[in-house]
Amino acid sequence: MGLQQFEQRLERLVEGVFAKAFRSGLEPVEIGRRLARELDLHRTIAPRGVIVPNAFTVAVSATDRGRFSSFEGELVRELSGYAAEHARDEGYHFLGPLMVEFDTDAHLRTGAFLVASEVRPAPEGAPLGALILPDGSRIEVTDGSVVIGRLPDCQIVLADPNVSRRHAEVRVEDGRVLAVDLGSTNGTKVNGAPITTQPLEDGDTITVGMTSIRYEAAS
Question: Is this structure's pTM higher than 0.90?
Answer without folding.
Answer: no
